[in-house]
Write a structure and sequence with these properties.
The protein contains five helices and seven strands; from the N terminus they run H-E-H-E-E-E-E-H-E-H-E-H. The chain has a seven-stranded mixed β-sheet with strand order 3-4-2-1-5-6-7, with helices on both faces. Helix 3 packs parallel to helix 4.
Length: about 130
């Protein structure tokens, strides 16, 4: 599957979650969350220090997300991303989109070992969803 097909597949079915969602509107974790919201997509935030971000429920970790989340956008430091890959696999989330700067070779390798679909090293979800400030 090429990158365009992977992106189409990732966006084809939600809901989604954003790990690294931030209440700070200047941070990419907030912008990624808002990109989903601007498109009217069902999305949850993952932030251990907030009960909601941009008016949507926030969960302290991936394990706490509601059942049925299909895709996880990751906007975290690479070491945290590696932990999130493990958590997503345990939760049954099969599609990951590591935003630029969040990926690591180890995270990608582990995702492959779990049979997860991974988008990384390519376009940002902000571009693909047409985010506007």
């Amino acid at each position: 599957m090429d990158i365009h097909q992977q992106i189409a597949d990732f966006l084809s079915q939600g809901p989604w979650a954003v790990a690294g969602a931030s209440s700070d509107r200047e941070k990419y974790g907030n912008k990624v969350l808002r990109a989903y919201l601007q498109r009217g997509l069902e999305v949850y935030a993952v932030n251990p220090r907030a009960s909601e971000v941009e008016g949507v429920p926030s969960f302290p970790d991936v394990a706490s997300l509601p059942a049925g989340v299909q895709g996880l956008s990751i906007v975290t430091p690479p070491k945290v991303t590696e932990e999130l890959v493990e958590a997503a696999a345990r939760k049954g989330i099969r599609k990951l989109w590591m935003q630029p700067g969040a990926e690591s070779a180890r995270a990608v390798e582990r995702a492959g070992e779990f049979g997860l679909s991974v988008i990384c090293g390519g376009p940002c979800v902000l571009v693909k969803l047409g985010f506007r400030e």
